[in-house]
# Entry
Amino acid sequence: MRQAPEGRAESRKSAPASKQDSSLGKVIMILLLVVLLGGGGFLGYQFYKQNADESTDSVRIEAEKPATESKESSEPAEKKEETKQDNSALTKVKGVLEGYNIGDEVLATSAGHTNDGSLSITKTANGQKRLVVVDNKNHRAAVLDLTSAVYNFAEQAKDHAGKVLLPLTIVNDKRDNDAVYGTWSGSNHKMGILAAFKIDGQKNVVPGMLTSGQGANPPVYQGVLYEPKNVDLANLILTEMAALHKDAQERGVGINN
# Structure
């Protein structure tokens, strides 16, 4: 029998080994691919889980906060206390006015500036603004229209002096020595008082001579006031106006708003 050449026999024997090496390489590559894919998936899962946890924590923190914060709750405690005191001043004056059968809403007041009385801007039920003066010493009250001539009398003074007409309606007045001045409507005394004043070096109003006249529209105001209580009412308007201006400005209250 003829024998194959020696080189050819070695070639046939090495073929299965090459085939095995190739198969083994494929298996190794598949395993590496699986490992890579698995590792990438694991890292992706960890990244997703971390973001999900952070998002959940964020939602939990937001949920623990109030849904909305009111403007009042965000204000400092001092500011809220100041507002409370301001409102209580208006409420207190309103209670005082109700004692004189004046049911106006109080918008601004000089109450607290002096113990003698107060001057306030009020609004009637029909929306009309007016001034109300309260004399604590004599337990009296009067109302008058809120006009620029009265409200800004000090600013209209020339050479630190001037005069202003105060058309008062004194609530539940008594017919006394000044009863001849102005007119009467039941127990309400409508009396115009012409008040002279000066402005001192500290810009304070210093009351001067007060006069009145007879009738609804007196041609002249030359009658001297005999009742000190009427003098007190008129002087309170003059001396409390600056404090009323300050309170009204802080509350955003004016003649036209």
Remarks:
- The helical segments are 6-64, 71-74, 77-98, 148-151, 228-251.
